[in-house]
Amino acid sequence: MKLLTFTTKNNSSNYKIGALYNDTVIDFSDANLPSDMISFIELGSEGLDIANDFVESRKTGMDVNDVIIKAPISRPNKILAVGLNYKKHVDEAKDLTNHHSSGVELQETFPNIFNKQNSSVNDPYGKVHRPNASDWLDYEGEMGFVVGKECRHVPYEKAESCIYGYTVVNDFTIRDWQYRGPPHTMTMGKSWDTHCPFGPYIVTADEIKDPHNLKLKTFVNDEERQNTNTGLLIYDCFTLVEYLSTAFTLTPGDLIPTGTPEGSALSTQNWLKPGDKVKVEIEGIGYIENSVIQEPESTIKN
Question: Domains in the chain: how many in total?
Answer without folding.
Answer: 2
